[in-house]
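Blinded run. Sample ID left blank on purpose so nobody reads anything into the name before looking at the predicted structure. Input follows.
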Amino acid sequence: MAHVNLELPAAAAPPKWFGTVTEQSLNQQLNGALNHKMHRERWKYTRVPPVLALLKEPGAPFETQLPEGVTLRHVAHDSMDTPAQVFFGEALAETLQHAPEATAWLCYQPNVQVLDVEAEVSEPLILKGAALHQPLIIRLAANASLDLHEIYDGNEGSSQLQSIWIDMQPGSRVQHSRNSFTTGTHWQYLRVNIGRDATYHLHNHSAGAELRRQDMQLICAAPGAHAEVTSAAFIGSKTHLDQQITVEHRAAHTTSEQTFHNIAAGGAKVTFNGRIHIHEHCASVDANLSNKNLSLGDNAVINTKPELEIYTDDVKCSHGATVGSLDQDHLFYCASRGIAPQQARTLLSQAFLQVCTLGPLAESAQQFLQQQAQSEVEGG
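Blinded prediction complete.
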């Protein structure tokens, strides 16, 4: 396949809160990052042009239900907003390289939404999406806590785009639950900076779509930081899911745990790339990654690539991936108990997903994913 140079849909103008970066420099860096060898490798199994085409479209504010203790404000493109400057100042060069699409989205939109969480919040913050949404920055003060619920619906074949940036100060806690069950083109970007003794846990539930891409970068930035992800996905016949996850340990005495269970029906295309990156001088890190994939059809395509990148000693790490079909011994056991073969396949598939269907949105996620599994098994 010939190399095609990737380009942004139009020149991106930096918002004032980016600092001193010029428009020329910004666009050179963005286009360079889009075409960098490592970045193109991350997009190897997903068509990039449909996502780039969405970036220039206007984004709408999230539909939010704000609990007491959370404040919302809109930061305009020409604002010199200090919190935004602080959040992106030192990390801008890295963001440009790791997520040029998300950085361009920040530049194209006239506003970003900023949510400030100053204390422990008793009620969940609910975000409902059905469109292209303005970038969202969530900032938690020291010792604050938040339950964040993301629910994505939408019309058949509709396009969606979301980018969420979370900054967690020392001792803060986020329990993040996300259900993504739309069917069109859907790209999601998530970046979380986890401070000292802060805890972040994502419950991720997904279905396949015409194009679904989930990019996540979780950064354990200070001692005591903990990141955890549990994810369950059912990718139906002729649908797509691409998950790209990087967990970075930038401080000693940090921990992370990742568990991903995916089921691919016949004709589905699933990609998982999970990377644990432990920086220099970050001893006493404990990081684990598991990706298990179950194929329900002969024509399913499953690409999985767990990675470890370690630059220090005295760490405890594990990573692994499996790709297989339903266990014949389990099917035989079900048959010996009088369970019909088709029903047994459905029950075993549902049990496989239920291991990672957790958190406040688990009940609705279980209903949807179980229906998907049953429909595919009975239809096959």
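Unblinding after everyone has recorded impressions. The mean pLDDT is 90.
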